[in-house]
Amino acid sequence: MTLRVRFDIADTSLAPEGKLRIEWADRQMPVLRQIRERFARERPIEGQRVAACLHVTTETANLMRTLKAGGAEVALCASNPLSTQDDVAASLVEDEGVPVFAICGEDRDTYYSHVHAVLDIEPTTTMDDGADLVSTVHSERTELIDGIRAGTEETTTGVIRLRSMAESGDLRYPIFAVNDAMTKHLFDNRFGTGQSTIDGIIRATNILLAGRTVVVCGFGMCGRGVAMRARGMGARVIVCEVDELRALEAAMEGYQVLPVAEAAEVGDVFITVAGNTSVIRGEHIAAMKDGAILGNSGHFDVEIDLDDLRGAAQSSRQVRPSLEEFQMKDGRRIYLLGEGRLVNLAAAEGHPASVMDMSFANQALCSEFIAGSPGNFDLAVHAVPQEIDRRVAKLKLAAMGIEIDELTEKQKQYLSSWRQGT
Ligand code: ADE
Fold first, then answer.
1. 352 alpha carbon to ligand 1 midpoint, in Å?
2. Which of 105, 124, 229, 363 is the most exposed place for a label (fewest CB within 10 A)?
3. pTM given for the model
4. Do residues 334 and 360 share a domain?
5. What's the number of domains the chain is made of?
6. What is the pLDDT of residue 106?
7. Which atom of ligand 1 sits closest to the CA of residue 193?
């Protein structure tokens, strides 16, 4: 398939800078690199066309290189209008020959025109982070469905969207939930989001977290990571939850657990990671202290009700990159990080490469699995095969130089027998 337009990026002259940063990330991605080297020898995805909608970062660039090495044709657009690293997009186009359609700060229409552009390769696989490709295929590009063997989904929010499509009978091709692999969500969601969210807050504000009250809304894997790292920086952490089990877990981890309405009165920094809409809304914003800082680390920019925030403000101004000050009608000032979009990608560089190593190793191995299968999966959201998950864990341990014990024969027998008790 020939694309109508070869690429649409901000500035091809940024390529040398991007290339250096991609190489640096590659040094932290030994698992993906090994897969790439094998892919180059074996070409297991030859002839596949992968349309990818992912954050355009150095780590994603190394995934694209891996898929190409395996023989696939790839095209890439952004999964968030603010997360594109323009130098990386440039290097992918100039050095790797990857058609990239992504410009940092693109508006909604451009974002979707880019989603359509990658779909023009007539994919055999879609690779999503948030399910915008799948939803566009199902709503506006249904002629592509018969040619698509399967898709993969990178993030919790996307998996939730896709499960609801499957449950309502609307899903027309199978999906592999990369997010749900152990070697993805236990590490990327927790350690990746934890570190990169704090990184984004600090880059945008340069505030000291020690001694401040940080409110974390949502205690899934990502929320746990953010709470853990905020506490590690010396903040007093309050967790807000709607799920009783998660709330209980947060309480026993030693966090104060409060409803958002109560936390609103005492928090200095608020981070939403709930995966839901209007988690922080007008009534909460009205109760906040002068100087409160609001940020979101959930996939979509719906968690802080921006209409409510704007509605209660009389003016706003950009005070630093990724930091907007709202002058409220009652005289307080409230600060918003990265337009309420993923603060770790809007104000920092996303998760560090060594954790994306595992997430993207899962993506690459799933692509291989999809290409090597007869393509007759049920129309459902499937788990990543356990064998892939374990392989990624083994490769990562080996790359980290960590050896572990093996069960002895006596131990194996013990585990497989029910006869030995008290
Ligand atoms: N999601 C979170 N961090 C990321 C990164 N560095 N690259 C791609 N996707 C991401």
1. 8
2. 105
3. 0.95
4. no
5. 2
6. 98
7. 2
CATH at 17:
3.40.50.1480
Does one domain contain both 311 and 391?
no
Asked if 272 and 167 sit in the same domain, the reply is no
Say if 360 falls within a structural domain.
Answer: yes
Confidence (pLDDT) at 208: 98
Q: Model confidence over 50-109: pLDDT tens digits?
A: 999 999 999 999 999 999 999 999 999 999 999 999 999 999 999 999 999 999 999 999
- Indicate whether 225 and 206 sit together in one domain: yes
- Kindly state if the Cβ of 21 falls inside 6 Å of ligand 1: no
SS3 per-residue string spanning 172-213 = CCCEEEHHHCHHHHHHHHHHHHHHHHHHHHHHHHCCCCCCCE
Same domain, 254 and 161: no
Query: What is the average pLDDT value for the chain, to the nearest integer?
Result: 97
Residue 5 has pLDDT above 80, yes or no: no
Coil, helix or strand at residue 3: coil
Residue 273 in any domain: the answer is yes
Same domain, 155 and 202: no
Cα–Cα distances in angstroms (integers) from residue 419 to residues 66, 150, 334, in the given order: 49, 45, 64
pLDDT of 366 over the 90 cut: yes
Q: So what's the pLDDT on residue 418?
A: 87
pLDDT computed for residue 419 by the predictor: 84
| Rounded-to-integer distance, Cα 368 and Cα 373, Å | 9
| Nearest Cα residue to atom 8 of ligand 1 | 55
- What is the predicted pLDDT for the residue at 273? 98
Taking the alpha carbons of 298, 299, 303, 305 in that order, is the dihedral positive or negative?
Answer: positive
Task: Give a yes or no: residue 411 inside a domain.
Answer: no
Mean pLDDT computed over 159-186: 97
Q: What is the distance between the alpha carbons of residues 274 and 305, in angstroms, rounded to a whole number?
A: 13
How sure is the predictor about 265, in pLDDT bands with cuts at 50, 70 and 90? very high
150 alpha carbon – ligand 1 mean position (Å): 22
- Which residue range forms the structural domain that includes residue 49? 12-184+351-399
Ligand 1 atom closest to the CA of 350, numbered from 1: 3
Short-list 230, 289, 293, 300, CA closest to 265? 289
